[in-house]
Specification:
flat, 41% strand, 6-stranded mixed β-sheet, 590 residues, 9-stranded antiparallel β-sheet
Length: 590
Protein backbone atom coordinates (compact mmCIF):
# COMPACT_ATOMS: atom_id res chain seq x y z
CA UNK A 1 0.00 0.00 0.00
CA UNK A 2 1.30 3.41 -0.94
CA UNK A 3 2.20 5.53 2.02
CA UNK A 4 0.01 8.58 2.63
CA UNK A 5 3.09 10.84 2.52
CA UNK A 6 3.94 9.58 -0.97
CA UNK A 7 0.35 10.13 -2.12
CA UNK A 8 0.50 13.71 -0.80
CA UNK A 9 3.83 14.27 -2.56
CA UNK A 10 2.45 13.03 -5.88
CA UNK A 11 -0.63 15.25 -5.54
CA UNK A 12 1.57 18.23 -4.74
CA UNK A 13 3.76 17.52 -7.81
CA UNK A 14 0.71 17.26 -10.06
CA UNK A 15 -0.64 20.52 -8.69
CA UNK A 16 2.68 22.25 -9.37
CA UNK A 17 2.76 20.90 -12.93
CA UNK A 18 -0.79 22.06 -13.59
CA UNK A 19 -0.03 25.49 -12.16
CA UNK A 20 3.18 25.76 -14.17
CA UNK A 21 1.41 24.76 -17.35
CA UNK A 22 -1.37 27.30 -16.81
CA UNK A 23 1.17 30.08 -16.12
CA UNK A 24 3.57 29.18 -18.92
CA UNK A 25 4.97 32.06 -20.93
CA UNK A 26 2.85 32.54 -24.04
CA UNK A 27 4.26 33.61 -27.36
CA UNK A 28 1.20 35.50 -28.54
CA UNK A 29 1.99 38.99 -27.18
CA UNK A 30 1.78 41.65 -29.92
CA UNK A 31 5.09 43.07 -31.09
CA UNK A 32 5.57 46.84 -30.95
CA UNK A 33 5.07 48.73 -34.19
CA UNK A 34 8.44 49.93 -35.45
CA UNK A 35 8.01 51.25 -38.98
CA UNK A 36 10.91 51.14 -41.39
CA UNK A 37 11.33 53.74 -44.12
CA UNK A 38 13.94 54.59 -46.73
CA UNK A 39 15.14 58.07 -45.76
CA UNK A 40 17.92 58.56 -48.35
CA UNK A 41 18.79 56.78 -51.60
CA UNK A 42 21.42 57.50 -54.23
CA UNK A 43 22.89 55.53 -57.12
CA UNK A 44 25.76 55.98 -59.53
CA UNK A 45 24.96 58.32 -62.44
CA UNK A 46 21.89 59.81 -60.80
CA UNK A 47 20.37 62.74 -62.71
CA UNK A 48 17.11 64.54 -63.47
CA UNK A 49 14.67 63.35 -66.12
CA UNK A 50 16.43 65.36 -68.86
CA UNK A 51 19.96 64.44 -67.75
CA UNK A 52 20.85 68.11 -67.43
CA UNK A 53 21.73 68.06 -63.72
CA UNK A 54 21.83 65.88 -60.65
CA UNK A 55 18.56 65.30 -58.80
CA UNK A 56 17.50 63.73 -55.54
CA UNK A 57 15.56 60.49 -55.48
CA UNK A 58 11.81 60.92 -55.00
CA UNK A 59 10.88 58.97 -51.86
CA UNK A 60 7.17 58.32 -51.34
CA UNK A 61 6.75 57.07 -47.77
CA UNK A 62 3.02 56.56 -48.11
CA UNK A 63 3.33 54.11 -51.03
CA UNK A 64 6.85 52.93 -50.07
CA UNK A 65 8.42 53.72 -53.43
CA UNK A 66 11.65 55.36 -54.58
CA UNK A 67 11.99 56.82 -58.09
CA UNK A 68 15.41 57.61 -59.57
CA UNK A 69 16.64 58.77 -62.96
CA UNK A 70 20.14 57.80 -64.17
CA UNK A 71 22.15 58.93 -67.17
CA UNK A 72 23.22 56.71 -70.05
CA UNK A 73 26.78 56.62 -68.65
CA UNK A 74 25.96 53.75 -66.27
CA UNK A 75 25.13 50.11 -66.74
CA UNK A 76 21.78 49.60 -65.02
CA UNK A 77 22.31 45.83 -65.13
CA UNK A 78 25.05 46.37 -62.53
CA UNK A 79 24.13 49.68 -60.94
CA UNK A 80 25.96 50.68 -57.77
CA UNK A 81 23.91 51.99 -54.88
CA UNK A 82 26.03 54.71 -53.28
CA UNK A 83 23.75 55.66 -50.40
CA UNK A 84 20.97 53.69 -48.73
CA UNK A 85 19.68 54.98 -45.40
CA UNK A 86 16.76 53.56 -43.44
CA UNK A 87 14.95 54.49 -40.24
CA UNK A 88 14.71 52.64 -36.93
CA UNK A 89 17.92 50.67 -37.59
CA UNK A 90 16.02 48.37 -39.92
CA UNK A 91 17.72 45.41 -41.60
CA UNK A 92 17.96 45.75 -45.41
CA UNK A 93 17.16 42.58 -47.37
CA UNK A 94 17.59 42.81 -51.18
CA UNK A 95 16.03 40.57 -53.81
CA UNK A 96 18.34 37.60 -54.27
CA UNK A 97 17.88 37.39 -58.04
CA UNK A 98 18.67 41.06 -58.71
CA UNK A 99 21.52 41.64 -56.28
CA UNK A 100 24.88 40.85 -57.89
CA UNK A 101 26.42 39.76 -54.60
CA UNK A 102 23.62 39.14 -52.09
CA UNK A 103 25.94 37.60 -49.50
CA UNK A 104 27.90 40.86 -49.21
CA UNK A 105 25.09 43.37 -49.66
CA UNK A 106 25.05 45.68 -46.59
CA UNK A 107 22.29 44.84 -44.16
CA UNK A 108 22.17 48.29 -42.53
CA UNK A 109 22.28 51.92 -43.68
CA UNK A 110 25.40 52.61 -45.74
CA UNK A 111 27.29 55.06 -47.93
CA UNK A 112 29.70 53.89 -50.65
CA UNK A 113 32.20 56.13 -52.42
CA UNK A 114 33.42 53.58 -54.96
CA UNK A 115 30.94 53.07 -57.80
CA UNK A 116 32.51 49.73 -58.77
CA UNK A 117 31.96 48.12 -55.36
CA UNK A 118 30.15 44.91 -56.36
CA UNK A 119 28.72 44.41 -52.87
CA UNK A 120 26.11 47.12 -53.50
CA UNK A 121 25.45 46.52 -57.20
CA UNK A 122 21.91 45.65 -58.28
CA UNK A 123 20.39 44.71 -61.65
CA UNK A 124 17.68 47.26 -62.49
CA UNK A 125 17.56 46.40 -66.20
CA UNK A 126 14.47 44.19 -65.88
CA UNK A 127 12.30 46.72 -64.03
CA UNK A 128 11.53 47.70 -60.46
CA UNK A 129 13.42 46.04 -57.62
CA UNK A 130 11.96 45.27 -54.19
CA UNK A 131 13.85 45.68 -50.91
CA UNK A 132 12.52 44.39 -47.59
CA UNK A 133 13.16 46.51 -44.51
CA UNK A 134 12.85 44.39 -41.37
CA UNK A 135 12.23 45.57 -37.81
CA UNK A 136 9.65 43.67 -35.78
CA UNK A 137 7.68 43.63 -39.00
CA UNK A 138 8.63 43.49 -42.70
CA UNK A 139 8.12 46.55 -44.91
CA UNK A 140 8.49 46.08 -48.67
CA UNK A 141 9.79 49.04 -50.67
CA UNK A 142 9.92 49.31 -54.47
CA UNK A 143 12.79 51.11 -56.21
CA UNK A 144 12.26 52.25 -59.81
CA UNK A 145 15.33 53.25 -61.82
CA UNK A 146 14.66 54.95 -65.16
CA UNK A 147 17.60 55.41 -67.52
CA UNK A 148 17.55 58.61 -69.55
CA UNK A 149 18.59 57.85 -73.14
CA UNK A 150 18.29 61.03 -75.20
CA UNK A 151 18.39 59.94 -78.84
CA UNK A 152 18.23 62.80 -81.31
CA UNK A 153 18.71 63.09 -85.09
CA UNK A 154 18.71 66.32 -87.09
CA UNK A 155 19.44 66.53 -90.81
CA UNK A 156 19.37 69.68 -92.89
CA UNK A 157 16.05 69.81 -94.75
CA UNK A 158 14.44 67.37 -92.35
CA UNK A 159 10.65 67.55 -92.14
CA UNK A 160 9.26 66.63 -88.73
CA UNK A 161 10.99 64.56 -86.07
CA UNK A 162 12.89 61.41 -86.86
CA UNK A 163 10.92 58.26 -86.07
CA UNK A 164 13.14 56.28 -83.67
CA UNK A 165 12.17 52.71 -82.83
CA UNK A 166 14.52 51.43 -80.08
CA UNK A 167 12.97 47.94 -80.07
CA UNK A 168 13.65 47.20 -83.75
CA UNK A 169 16.64 49.58 -83.76
CA UNK A 170 15.23 51.34 -86.78
CA UNK A 171 15.16 55.06 -87.66
CA UNK A 172 13.03 56.65 -90.39
CA UNK A 173 13.67 60.25 -91.45
CA UNK A 174 11.79 62.45 -93.92
CA UNK A 175 13.43 65.31 -95.83
CA UNK A 176 12.06 67.93 -98.22
CA UNK A 177 11.47 66.83 -101.82
CA UNK A 178 14.16 69.18 -103.16
CA UNK A 179 16.93 67.62 -101.07
CA UNK A 180 19.57 65.29 -102.54
CA UNK A 181 19.56 62.19 -100.33
CA UNK A 182 23.08 61.28 -101.48
CA UNK A 183 24.52 64.47 -99.98
CA UNK A 184 22.74 65.39 -96.76
CA UNK A 185 24.35 67.46 -94.04
CA UNK A 186 23.91 65.70 -90.69
CA UNK A 187 23.76 68.11 -87.74
CA UNK A 188 22.91 65.73 -84.87
CA UNK A 189 23.14 61.93 -84.74
CA UNK A 190 23.09 60.73 -81.10
CA UNK A 191 21.65 57.25 -81.46
CA UNK A 192 23.71 56.09 -78.51
CA UNK A 193 22.24 58.63 -76.14
CA UNK A 194 23.84 61.78 -74.87
CA UNK A 195 27.17 60.12 -74.02
CA UNK A 196 27.24 57.16 -76.42
CA UNK A 197 29.10 56.64 -79.70
CA UNK A 198 28.02 55.92 -83.29
CA UNK A 199 30.26 54.29 -85.92
CA UNK A 200 30.59 55.66 -88.52
CA UNK A 201 29.69 59.11 -87.22
CA UNK A 202 27.95 60.99 -90.08
CA UNK A 203 28.34 64.38 -88.35
CA UNK A 204 32.09 64.19 -89.03
CA UNK A 205 31.53 64.47 -92.79
CA UNK A 206 30.53 67.49 -94.85
CA UNK A 207 27.62 65.46 -96.24
CA UNK A 208 26.53 61.85 -95.94
CA UNK A 209 24.95 59.50 -98.47
CA UNK A 210 21.49 58.34 -97.38
CA UNK A 211 20.29 57.37 -100.87
CA UNK A 212 19.88 53.84 -99.52
CA UNK A 213 19.44 52.26 -96.09
CA UNK A 214 22.52 52.69 -93.89
CA UNK A 215 23.73 50.61 -90.96
CA UNK A 216 25.46 52.03 -87.87
CA UNK A 217 27.17 50.46 -84.85
CA UNK A 218 25.87 52.08 -81.67
CA UNK A 219 27.32 51.81 -78.19
CA UNK A 220 26.01 53.49 -75.05
CA UNK A 221 28.55 54.87 -72.60
CA UNK A 222 27.46 52.64 -69.75
CA UNK A 223 27.29 49.39 -71.71
CA UNK A 224 29.80 46.98 -73.22
CA UNK A 225 27.25 45.87 -75.83
CA UNK A 226 27.38 47.16 -79.42
CA UNK A 227 24.01 47.46 -81.16
CA UNK A 228 23.33 47.54 -84.89
CA UNK A 229 20.88 50.23 -86.03
CA UNK A 230 19.37 50.82 -89.48
CA UNK A 231 18.54 54.29 -90.79
CA UNK A 232 16.29 55.04 -93.80
CA UNK A 233 15.71 58.50 -95.30
CA UNK A 234 12.64 59.20 -97.46
CA UNK A 235 11.61 62.27 -99.42
CA UNK A 236 8.26 63.87 -98.66
CA UNK A 237 6.10 66.36 -100.49
CA UNK A 238 4.92 67.80 -97.19
CA UNK A 239 5.81 71.46 -96.82
CA UNK A 240 7.90 72.78 -93.96
CA UNK A 241 5.56 73.83 -91.19
CA UNK A 242 5.45 75.56 -87.84
CA UNK A 243 3.67 73.88 -84.94
CA UNK A 244 2.82 75.99 -81.89
CA UNK A 245 1.01 75.46 -78.60
CA UNK A 246 0.48 77.74 -75.62
CA UNK A 247 0.23 77.55 -71.86
CA UNK A 248 -1.22 80.66 -70.26
CA UNK A 249 -0.90 81.80 -66.66
CA UNK A 250 -2.32 85.00 -65.15
CA UNK A 251 0.14 87.63 -66.41
CA UNK A 252 2.39 85.50 -68.62
CA UNK A 253 2.27 82.69 -71.17
CA UNK A 254 4.63 80.24 -72.84
CA UNK A 255 4.46 79.58 -76.58
CA UNK A 256 6.38 76.50 -77.75
CA UNK A 257 6.55 74.17 -80.70
CA UNK A 258 8.49 72.98 -83.75
CA UNK A 259 10.04 74.94 -86.59
CA UNK A 260 12.16 74.06 -89.66
CA UNK A 261 15.75 73.34 -88.73
CA UNK A 262 17.95 76.44 -88.64
CA UNK A 263 15.10 78.97 -88.81
CA UNK A 264 14.69 81.81 -86.31
CA UNK A 265 11.08 82.01 -85.11
CA UNK A 266 9.24 85.32 -84.85
CA UNK A 267 6.45 85.24 -82.29
CA UNK A 268 3.71 87.89 -82.43
CA UNK A 269 0.58 88.42 -80.35
CA UNK A 270 -2.19 90.89 -79.54
CA UNK A 271 -5.04 91.16 -77.06
CA UNK A 272 -8.64 90.62 -78.09
CA UNK A 273 -10.24 93.80 -79.40
CA UNK A 274 -6.99 95.16 -80.84
CA UNK A 275 -5.25 94.48 -84.15
CA UNK A 276 -1.82 95.81 -83.28
CA UNK A 277 0.64 92.93 -83.15
CA UNK A 278 3.40 92.94 -80.54
CA UNK A 279 6.60 90.97 -81.22
CA UNK A 280 8.31 88.92 -78.52
CA UNK A 281 11.92 90.09 -78.15
CA UNK A 282 14.50 87.69 -79.52
CA UNK A 283 16.06 87.36 -76.04
CA UNK A 284 12.80 85.81 -74.82
CA UNK A 285 12.77 83.18 -77.58
CA UNK A 286 14.91 80.08 -77.01
CA UNK A 287 15.72 77.75 -79.91
CA UNK A 288 16.99 74.19 -79.50
CA UNK A 289 17.51 72.53 -82.88
CA UNK A 290 13.99 72.37 -84.35
CA UNK A 291 12.14 73.37 -81.19
CA UNK A 292 11.47 76.79 -79.71
CA UNK A 293 10.08 78.31 -76.53
CA UNK A 294 8.95 81.92 -76.17
CA UNK A 295 7.96 83.72 -72.97
CA UNK A 296 5.26 86.39 -73.09
CA UNK A 297 5.22 88.66 -70.03
CA UNK A 298 3.23 91.67 -68.86
CA UNK A 299 -0.11 90.24 -69.98
CA UNK A 300 -3.50 91.11 -68.48
CA UNK A 301 -5.35 88.54 -66.36
CA UNK A 302 -8.59 87.06 -67.71
CA UNK A 303 -7.87 88.24 -71.26
CA UNK A 304 -7.93 86.43 -74.60
CA UNK A 305 -4.88 86.80 -76.85
CA UNK A 306 -4.19 85.84 -80.48
CA UNK A 307 -0.70 84.73 -81.52
CA UNK A 308 1.20 83.51 -84.57
CA UNK A 309 4.68 82.17 -85.28
CA UNK A 310 6.73 82.65 -88.45
CA UNK A 311 9.96 80.75 -89.20
CA UNK A 312 11.58 81.22 -92.60
CA UNK A 313 8.95 80.48 -95.24
CA UNK A 314 6.77 78.58 -92.79
CA UNK A 315 4.00 80.15 -90.74
CA UNK A 316 1.57 78.87 -88.13
CA UNK A 317 -2.12 79.53 -88.04
CA UNK A 318 -3.43 82.34 -85.91
CA UNK A 319 -4.13 80.72 -82.55
CA UNK A 320 -5.56 81.94 -79.24
CA UNK A 321 -5.12 81.51 -75.51
CA UNK A 322 -6.80 83.07 -72.47
CA UNK A 323 -4.96 84.17 -69.36
CA UNK A 324 -6.26 83.06 -65.97
CA UNK A 325 -8.10 85.50 -63.72
CA UNK A 326 -6.77 86.74 -60.39
CA UNK A 327 -7.78 85.02 -57.15
CA UNK A 328 -7.34 86.22 -53.58
CA UNK A 329 -7.44 84.47 -50.22
CA UNK A 330 -10.62 84.65 -48.17
CA UNK A 331 -10.60 86.52 -44.83
CA UNK A 332 -7.02 87.56 -45.64
CA UNK A 333 -7.15 90.40 -43.11
CA UNK A 334 -8.16 87.97 -40.33
CA UNK A 335 -11.11 90.18 -39.42
CA UNK A 336 -13.61 87.37 -38.91
CA UNK A 337 -13.40 85.01 -35.92
CA UNK A 338 -15.74 83.10 -33.68
CA UNK A 339 -15.09 81.78 -30.19
CA UNK A 340 -16.49 78.55 -28.78
CA UNK A 341 -16.99 78.67 -24.98
CA UNK A 342 -15.62 82.23 -24.74
CA UNK A 343 -15.74 82.35 -20.94
CA UNK A 344 -13.84 79.09 -20.47
CA UNK A 345 -10.09 78.87 -19.85
CA UNK A 346 -10.13 76.54 -22.89
CA UNK A 347 -11.95 78.95 -25.20
CA UNK A 348 -11.57 77.80 -28.80
CA UNK A 349 -10.67 80.61 -31.23
CA UNK A 350 -11.67 79.85 -34.84
CA UNK A 351 -10.61 82.15 -37.74
CA UNK A 352 -13.95 82.40 -39.55
CA UNK A 353 -17.19 84.24 -38.95
CA UNK A 354 -20.10 82.77 -37.01
CA UNK A 355 -22.13 80.53 -39.31
CA UNK A 356 -19.64 80.84 -42.19
CA UNK A 357 -17.61 78.10 -43.85
CA UNK A 358 -14.00 77.88 -42.61
CA UNK A 359 -11.17 78.84 -44.95
CA UNK A 360 -8.31 79.14 -42.46
CA UNK A 361 -7.50 76.68 -39.69
CA UNK A 362 -5.27 76.65 -36.61
CA UNK A 363 -3.88 74.13 -34.16
CA UNK A 364 -6.28 75.41 -31.48
CA UNK A 365 -8.55 72.32 -31.48
CA UNK A 366 -5.54 70.32 -30.32
CA UNK A 367 -4.25 72.94 -27.90
CA UNK A 368 -7.61 73.34 -26.18
CA UNK A 369 -7.84 69.66 -25.31
CA UNK A 370 -5.33 70.41 -22.54
CA UNK A 371 -5.04 74.21 -22.36
CA UNK A 372 -5.87 77.54 -23.97
CA UNK A 373 -5.85 78.60 -27.64
CA UNK A 374 -2.47 80.00 -28.61
CA UNK A 375 -3.53 81.21 -32.08
CA UNK A 376 -5.93 84.08 -31.50
CA UNK A 377 -6.75 87.55 -32.78
CA UNK A 378 -5.96 90.93 -31.32
CA UNK A 379 -7.53 94.37 -31.77
CA UNK A 380 -5.06 97.23 -31.63
CA UNK A 381 -4.90 100.74 -33.14
CA UNK A 382 -8.09 100.19 -35.09
CA UNK A 383 -7.06 96.98 -36.79
CA UNK A 384 -7.65 93.30 -36.11
CA UNK A 385 -4.95 90.75 -36.89
CA UNK A 386 -3.86 87.18 -36.17
CA UNK A 387 -1.87 86.84 -32.95
CA UNK A 388 0.18 83.63 -32.99
CA UNK A 389 2.07 82.74 -29.81
CA UNK A 390 4.31 79.74 -29.07
CA UNK A 391 3.66 78.06 -25.74
CA UNK A 392 4.36 74.93 -23.73
CA UNK A 393 0.83 73.64 -23.16
CA UNK A 394 0.51 71.01 -20.42
CA UNK A 395 2.40 68.15 -22.08
CA UNK A 396 4.18 69.53 -25.12
CA UNK A 397 5.35 72.57 -27.04
CA UNK A 398 2.90 74.18 -29.51
CA UNK A 399 3.70 76.87 -32.06
CA UNK A 400 1.16 79.57 -32.81
CA UNK A 401 -0.04 78.95 -36.35
CA UNK A 402 -2.66 79.65 -38.98
CA UNK A 403 -3.05 77.91 -42.35
CA UNK A 404 -5.38 77.58 -45.32
CA UNK A 405 -7.17 74.36 -44.53
CA UNK A 406 -8.75 72.58 -41.62
CA UNK A 407 -7.80 70.89 -38.37
CA UNK A 408 -9.30 67.41 -38.68
CA UNK A 409 -8.78 65.72 -35.34
CA UNK A 410 -6.38 65.02 -32.46
CA UNK A 411 -4.52 61.72 -32.43
CA UNK A 412 -3.30 61.28 -28.86
CA UNK A 413 -1.67 64.68 -28.37
CA UNK A 414 -0.86 65.13 -32.07
CA UNK A 415 -2.71 66.89 -34.83
CA UNK A 416 -4.12 65.59 -38.11
CA UNK A 417 -4.63 68.49 -40.51
CA UNK A 418 -5.91 69.11 -44.02
CA UNK A 419 -3.72 71.66 -45.82
CA UNK A 420 -4.92 73.55 -48.90
CA UNK A 421 -7.91 75.29 -50.45
CA UNK A 422 -9.03 75.13 -54.12
CA UNK A 423 -7.07 77.57 -56.26
CA UNK A 424 -6.32 77.76 -60.01
CA UNK A 425 -4.54 81.07 -60.53
CA UNK A 426 -0.86 82.08 -60.90
CA UNK A 427 0.20 84.84 -58.47
CA UNK A 428 3.80 86.02 -58.70
CA UNK A 429 4.25 87.41 -55.17
CA UNK A 430 2.60 87.40 -51.73
CA UNK A 431 2.53 90.54 -49.59
CA UNK A 432 1.59 90.85 -45.91
CA UNK A 433 2.11 92.99 -42.80
CA UNK A 434 3.79 91.40 -39.81
CA UNK A 435 5.62 91.81 -36.51
CA UNK A 436 7.73 89.20 -34.80
CA UNK A 437 9.23 88.83 -31.35
CA UNK A 438 11.64 85.94 -31.08
CA UNK A 439 12.68 84.11 -27.92
CA UNK A 440 15.43 81.59 -27.10
CA UNK A 441 14.56 78.02 -28.06
CA UNK A 442 13.83 76.19 -24.83
CA UNK A 443 11.88 73.16 -26.04
CA UNK A 444 12.84 70.48 -28.50
CA UNK A 445 10.98 67.37 -29.56
CA UNK A 446 12.89 65.19 -27.13
CA UNK A 447 11.45 67.04 -24.14
CA UNK A 448 8.13 65.26 -23.96
CA UNK A 449 6.49 61.88 -23.83
CA UNK A 450 3.31 60.51 -25.28
CA UNK A 451 0.58 60.07 -22.62
CA UNK A 452 1.27 56.35 -22.51
CA UNK A 453 4.92 57.02 -21.71
CA UNK A 454 6.69 56.43 -25.00
CA UNK A 455 9.69 58.78 -25.24
CA UNK A 456 10.03 60.59 -28.57
CA UNK A 457 13.61 61.29 -29.59
CA UNK A 458 14.36 64.52 -31.46
CA UNK A 459 18.06 64.69 -30.68
CA UNK A 460 18.74 66.40 -34.01
CA UNK A 461 17.14 69.57 -32.61
CA UNK A 462 18.88 69.54 -29.23
CA UNK A 463 21.70 71.70 -30.63
CA UNK A 464 19.19 74.49 -31.31
CA UNK A 465 18.51 75.12 -27.61
CA UNK A 466 19.38 78.66 -26.59
CA UNK A 467 19.39 79.95 -30.16
CA UNK A 468 16.79 82.51 -31.32
CA UNK A 469 13.52 81.03 -32.51
CA UNK A 470 12.49 81.60 -36.15
CA UNK A 471 9.10 82.50 -37.56
CA UNK A 472 7.96 81.15 -40.92
CA UNK A 473 5.44 82.31 -43.52
CA UNK A 474 5.20 80.33 -46.73
CA UNK A 475 3.00 79.79 -49.77
CA UNK A 476 2.79 76.65 -51.88
CA UNK A 477 0.81 76.00 -55.07
CA UNK A 478 0.31 72.46 -56.26
CA UNK A 479 -1.77 70.06 -58.32
CA UNK A 480 -1.99 67.36 -55.66
CA UNK A 481 -4.57 64.63 -56.11
CA UNK A 482 -7.00 64.57 -53.16
CA UNK A 483 -6.36 61.89 -50.55
CA UNK A 484 -9.05 59.93 -48.76
CA UNK A 485 -9.01 60.36 -45.00
CA UNK A 486 -11.25 58.51 -42.57
CA UNK A 487 -11.84 60.06 -39.15
CA UNK A 488 -10.63 57.82 -36.34
CA UNK A 489 -12.03 59.51 -33.26
CA UNK A 490 -15.02 61.36 -31.87
CA UNK A 491 -18.41 61.98 -33.42
CA UNK A 492 -17.05 61.83 -36.99
CA UNK A 493 -15.31 58.47 -36.57
CA UNK A 494 -15.78 56.38 -39.70
CA UNK A 495 -16.58 59.32 -41.99
CA UNK A 496 -14.34 59.65 -45.07
CA UNK A 497 -13.45 62.95 -46.73
CA UNK A 498 -11.17 64.21 -49.52
CA UNK A 499 -8.06 66.02 -48.27
CA UNK A 500 -5.83 68.13 -50.58
CA UNK A 501 -2.66 67.59 -48.54
CA UNK A 502 -2.66 65.53 -45.33
CA UNK A 503 -0.42 66.63 -42.44
CA UNK A 504 0.32 64.44 -39.42
CA UNK A 505 2.48 65.54 -36.50
CA UNK A 506 2.63 62.18 -34.71
CA UNK A 507 6.36 61.29 -34.81
CA UNK A 508 5.69 57.62 -35.62
CA UNK A 509 3.54 58.61 -38.62
CA UNK A 510 5.04 62.01 -39.43
CA UNK A 511 3.90 63.54 -42.72
CA UNK A 512 4.78 67.19 -43.34
CA UNK A 513 5.26 69.45 -46.35
CA UNK A 514 7.61 67.77 -48.84
CA UNK A 515 9.75 70.23 -50.81
CA UNK A 516 10.63 67.46 -53.30
CA UNK A 517 6.99 66.62 -54.02
CA UNK A 518 6.58 66.40 -57.84
CA UNK A 519 3.13 68.02 -57.48
CA UNK A 520 4.61 71.16 -55.92
CA UNK A 521 4.32 73.78 -58.69
CA UNK A 522 5.44 76.95 -56.91
CA UNK A 523 6.80 78.00 -53.52
CA UNK A 524 7.84 81.09 -51.59
CA UNK A 525 8.90 81.59 -47.96
CA UNK A 526 9.92 84.13 -45.34
CA UNK A 527 11.97 83.01 -42.31
CA UNK A 528 13.11 85.46 -39.63
CA UNK A 529 15.13 84.62 -36.53
CA UNK A 530 15.18 88.13 -35.08
CA UNK A 531 12.78 90.74 -33.68
CA UNK A 532 10.83 92.61 -36.39
CA UNK A 533 10.88 95.57 -36.26
CA UNK A 534 12.12 95.50 -32.64
CA UNK A 535 11.51 93.78 -29.30
CA UNK A 536 8.64 96.22 -28.56
CA UNK A 537 6.75 95.39 -31.78
CA UNK A 538 6.48 99.14 -32.25
CA UNK A 539 5.28 99.19 -35.87
CA UNK A 540 4.16 96.99 -38.74
CA UNK A 541 6.54 95.85 -41.46
CA UNK A 542 5.29 95.07 -44.97
CA UNK A 543 7.01 92.07 -46.55
CA UNK A 544 6.75 90.79 -50.11
CA UNK A 545 7.98 87.33 -50.99
CA UNK A 546 8.52 86.01 -54.51
CA UNK A 547 6.63 82.91 -55.60
CA UNK A 548 9.07 80.76 -57.56
CA UNK A 549 7.54 78.47 -60.18
CA UNK A 550 9.31 75.13 -60.50
CA UNK A 551 6.80 73.98 -63.11
CA UNK A 552 5.49 76.43 -65.72
CA UNK A 553 3.17 74.25 -67.77
CA UNK A 554 0.73 72.90 -65.16
CA UNK A 555 -2.12 74.70 -63.45
CA UNK A 556 -2.43 74.62 -59.66
CA UNK A 557 -5.40 72.95 -58.00
CA UNK A 558 -4.74 74.13 -54.44
CA UNK A 559 -3.07 76.89 -52.46
CA UNK A 560 -1.37 76.37 -49.10
CA UNK A 561 -0.44 79.39 -46.97
CA UNK A 562 1.05 78.79 -43.52
CA UNK A 563 2.21 81.24 -40.85
CA UNK A 564 3.91 80.00 -37.68
CA UNK A 565 5.60 81.68 -34.72
CA UNK A 566 8.11 78.78 -34.55
CA UNK A 567 9.41 77.37 -37.83
CA UNK A 568 10.16 73.97 -36.31
CA UNK A 569 6.91 73.76 -34.39
CA UNK A 570 5.97 70.63 -36.37
CA UNK A 571 8.89 69.01 -34.54
CA UNK A 572 7.73 70.53 -31.22
CA UNK A 573 10.80 72.77 -31.16
CA UNK A 574 10.87 76.50 -30.40
CA UNK A 575 10.84 79.30 -27.84
CA UNK A 576 8.00 79.58 -25.33
CA UNK A 577 7.60 83.34 -25.76
CA UNK A 578 7.84 83.67 -29.55
CA UNK A 579 5.07 85.82 -31.03
CA UNK A 580 4.10 86.37 -34.68
CA UNK A 581 1.44 88.93 -35.58
CA UNK A 582 0.26 88.94 -39.21
CA UNK A 583 -2.31 90.89 -41.19
CA UNK A 584 -3.46 91.83 -44.71
CA UNK A 585 -2.21 88.86 -46.73
CA UNK A 586 -2.46 89.71 -50.43
CA UNK A 587 -1.55 87.87 -53.62
CA UNK A 588 0.10 89.99 -56.30
CA UNK A 589 0.00 89.50 -60.06
CA UNK A 590 2.85 91.38 -61.72
Amino acid sequence: MMHLRNICSICYLLAVLVAFNSCAIRDDLPLPIKRAEITAFKVDGQCNELDTDTAAAVIDKEHRTVDVFVSDTVNIAALSIKRFEVSNEATIIPEQNTCLCPAKFPSTSFTRSAADDISSQVDFSKGAVTFTLRTYQDYKWTVNVKQVILRDIQIEGQVGDAIINPYDRLVIIYVAANKDRSALKVLQFSLGGKHGTVTPNPTQYATYDFSKMRTFQVKMAGSHETQEWEVIVYKTTAAETVEATSFARSVSATISGKIPWGAQPVVEYHAAGTNQWATVSESEVKVDKSRFTAELNGLRPATTYTYRVTAGNAKSEELTFATVGEQQLENAGFEEWNIVNPTSNKALYQPWGEGKAPYWGTGNPGATTVGASNSTYKDEDGRRFANLRSKFIAVKFAAGNIFTGEYLETDGTNGVLSFGRPFTSFPTKMRFDYKYKTSPITKTGGDWKEPWGKYISRAMYESMKGKPDTCSVYIALGDWEPQKYTYQFGAKAGQTIDVPYLIRTRPTALHLMNMNDPHLIAYGELSKGEDVPDSNLSSWVTETIDINYRITDRQPKYIIVVASSSKYGDYFTGGEESLLQIDNVELLYE
